[in-house]
Automatic annotation (TrEMBL):
Coiled-coil stretches noted in the UniProt entry, renumbered to this chain: none
Organism: Runella salmonicolor
InterPro entries with a match to the protein in the record: RgtA/B/C-like
Top-level taxon of the source organism: Bacteria
Residue stretches spanning the membrane: 31-50, 109-135, 226-243, 249-268, 289-307, 327-344, 456-477, 483-501, 513-531, 543-563
Keyword annotations from UniProtKB, A to Z: Membrane, Transmembrane, Transmembrane helix
Entry protein name: Glycosyltransferase family 39 protein
Pfam families: PMT_2
Amino acid sequence: MVLISLLSFGVFLGYIGRTSAGICRPSLIEWLITSFLLFAGSIIITGYCLSALDLTGNTWAWAIAVFIPPTILRVVFSKIAPQTTAFSPLKMVVSRWHAAQRWYVSGTIYLRFLFGIMILSVAIIGITNLLLVLFTVPNEWDSMTGHLNRVIQYIQRGTMAHFGGTNWNIDTYPKSVCTIQIYSYLITGKFENAFKLIHHLSYWITLVAVFGIAQRITKNRLNASFFCALAFALFLDFLMQAVTTETDIVLAAYLSCLLYFLFTYRVTYENRYLYLAALSFGVVYGHKVTFTLLLPSVFVVMIYTVFLQKGRGQKKENVTLNINWPAIFKLGIAIVVCFCLWTLPTGYVKNIQVFGHPIGPPTSLKHQSIERATSNGGYRNLFEQGSRNVVRYAYDFVNLDGLRNVKIGQDINRGMRIPLVWLEDKLRMRLDETTEFSIVPFSFERRFEFFNGNPYWGIFGFALVFPLLFLALFGILRSPAHWFLAVALLLHFAALSYSAPYDPWKGRYFQETGVFGVLFLTLLFTHKYSLEKSGYSVALKTYVGVVTVLACISALLAVFLNFRCLPFDALGRKSAFKMERIPMMTFARPDITQAYLKFDELVPDSATVALGTINDDFEYPLYGKHLTRRLIPIRPFEQPLRPIPPGTDYLMYAKSDTIDLFKPLPTDIRLGTDTTMKGMIVKGEDYYLRKLK
């Protein structure tokens, strides 16, 4: 049965590739990006349909139904944007491989050194991350409480309908990524680590898209394009999520696809790219509501790529005030259609029905939105606190993340930041003293868990990207494309700062900002002091070389000393490959590990368990090694306690100090928690287990 489902998966991938070849132009980059978008978009819309038919957990329904959406898309594109040029993706792969070899050999000694260390670093990181994806279980906080927890619930229930989970994320987060995780899990014979497939794939597709965008901006300069793609592969916040089930890396992939199609339209003026951009828009907005914060940035890029026509037949790229109304109309209509198909069904409408808001309940909005600032001083206070957040995040960017996982790197980092700390003190900005618009108070010395698990861009960011950004913004390096990208990046930076309280975990949100930011590295190859010129700009070459070497070392240390998923024994912990399932999954909550181990020992894999746990409790590990236990939440977020359903075998509950809903019986087994551990982000509850029959 597993072999048949895997065969179906292989046939589906082949069908997606063939369909993509019938839609896109003869380009390997474009074929890969289009295939990824069709893969994700087809599974997402299939998932919505199967959920309505109560077939979410049916492997064979998935195996057959996923072929329908790409077939329809192929027919639609043949009508609205017919492709007349046939090509073989396999032959193109071989051709591009030989071209890449010729490109590397033809470079100067300096460029071969620069690209050599980057390629070697990315190869080591890529192999290591692939092994971690295949052979280690998921263990991210949000996945243990919400993301993966609800995926198993949907499979067991046979539908993705709202059911009222313990954690508010379960019901409020858009469900599009769940469809891909469910399909990946079922079609691979219920291989748990297949939940990471879309996230790991997103890492590589984003690099392909960044390469393609750089090609469009620089008019096919390979050095600039390869440098951008390889550099982004080393951006720490981005590569860290390649082994997780966090959602931000997938958002970055969808965004990069959208930007690629927009920039390609500017080069070709072919309508197919407007429609593919609209498809990307619908998919990305259906993925996560934080795409709303990217709307101003995407709109700015649309102004440059679609709304304003460049002067045709001219050698220089000029932006004129000739508004491209036909393209605007086509893009607008296509976005509305794709929004209805890929965005609305993902859960926003249901959130409005249940909570009165497309995002979620009032509690979550007040905790993570502008209301925390506007409720105390109105929009004037929001401007003040948001501006303070701008400076906080700017300070967080100026860190040697990755390197400071070791003591010598931490010491160098502290010394480097002394002038910044002094400046903040003299300016009396009170970044660490004012806490009213912070989830966790700002600190110049972030906790190890924060900078180790959620770093920012590393040295590439503050040493190269931001200097180039401001040089382009103020016209010192003249490039219309980069001026619009600078505005787009700063708008997203501001949106993250003003839209929600300061959060030390925010490094992951700046992945999308990084998609805009990394494109500024093309300026190193397109202006007077280019790195391509032999014997020219020695100081710049030396500076870029040092930054690149440090970036490679930082990236390798970030992966090898990733506290959450260590590939080797380090930092006083065993390798993730050696750790048992429960300790690995509860690494962020070690005080509950023994209680969960005891639960796993006492409760059979086939049992039905009522859960009286609370919002921050890890529920995913309780499904068991084979994910076969049936868990029924009876204490849904901000709802009254539900009765224990008939036929339930066990009750597990958390004895809260403030809400004592369950009085322990003499026969209850106290699973407990370790109260001696200090410095917990969230402390574990006192857990009990009751056998009901």
